[in-house]
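User: I'm putting together a teaching handout on how sequence relates to shape, and I'd like one worked example. Could you take Cytochrome c-552/DMSO reductase-like haem-binding domain-containing protein from Aromatoleum toluolicum, show the sequence you're using, and then write out its predicted structure as tokens right after it?

Assistant: Happy to. First the sequence, then the structure tokens directly below it.
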Amino acid sequence: MKKTALLVSLAVLGIGAAHAADPAKINWGKIPAVTVPLFFPGQSSYEWLRSEAHEGAVKEVVRGDSCTSCHDEEDAEKDIGEEIVKGGRLEPRPVKGKSGYKALKVQAAYDAKNAYLRFQWKTDNAYPGSEHQYLRFDGKEWKVFGYPKLDKPVQDGQEMGIYEDRMSIMIDDGKVLGFANQGCWLTCHDGQRDMAKQFTKDEVAGNALLQAIKKRDVRKYLPDTRTDPSDWKTGKSVEDIAKIKAAGGFVDLIQWRAHRSNPVGMTDDGYVLEFRLSDSGKDMFGGNADAKTHQPKFMWDASKVGYKSITVDQLRKGDHYLIREQNAVPFDPNAGWKEGDMIPDYIVSRADAKGSAADNNAIASWKDGMWAVVMVRPLGLANDDDKALKAGGVYNVGFAVHDDNITTRGHQVSFVKTIGFGSKADIKAVKLP
């Protein structure tokens, strides 16, 4: 595959024409670009920053100083990332060929209706990471095929590395103490997936907060949701956390996903508080495996795409999205399945996306090793799980890119930046005519 592109009209995106720009027609050549350095963080966490292992910086971190008050030299991010990615104290499972640094080009614009955030970055691979894991028939049953590169089966050569590319932004409006200086490290903790001291199933099963919110693992959280910010097991009550949320003490998390949101011109919309949570409503993607039979729920409509499944030799040779309202039909267990047949493990649907979870739109293209993604975020959202972007506002933001078939901490991240909509900031959004 040499190129993949998605250009979505205003009508498809659901953007009202009045006072709203068509993101595909914005003249980005006239909008200033800021290059934001991203680096591989390994297992650096909230706890690691506050430990003696963070040589000579513990007092400053605990005091609340910014990361860049120390790491302010030119190419600091590049030096940090390229050292960590090799392996060692912060990377126990180095990924072969993984880059430690990535330059992210950021542009921003806004009008009376929306904010438009454009990102460009070069992928580690010579193809877009537009595929996610599959369900594969082994002759008897359907099993998951393809895992992210940090997983042991991939590193041991037992499984193929398959995972979608992602572009993420965290947004704070000044209500999360410490985010302006230490950014996403407030959300990244020991105990989480692929982090130091990773949780056990028994620990999760015995944890009152995780059981109350019906979660089966440990993901991002903010320190204020724990009685001991450095111990994920010490969760506050659901009632106390609800008060924190009502006061705006959460960070927005918008994720563009090359497989699970891009095919329908959207990004997902979530937030981080006691866990990494989706906004209310329904996401544009969902699992395609039946919980009881483990068979797929949907397969491709052969009358529309020419096939009902693919095989491994067809990977990365086309856009293999399963879109419920466009190219999918209910799975037929008697359709003559053969060993090696594969169907996506996720079904995507714009029609099914509802509520606050469906606020954000996007367009994207990949060409010559470079993604270009434009996120479209409505201004003035009043949902209780969103940060409302407004003209004149300045927000603390952190960026992350996942590519190279990887997830969890296998991304490149930024130190905190600011974005202003008509206001002075690191990244200044331009008002569109």
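A couple of points you could highlight for students: The two ends are 37 Å apart (CA to CA). Residues 124 and 404 are 6 Å apart (CA to CA).
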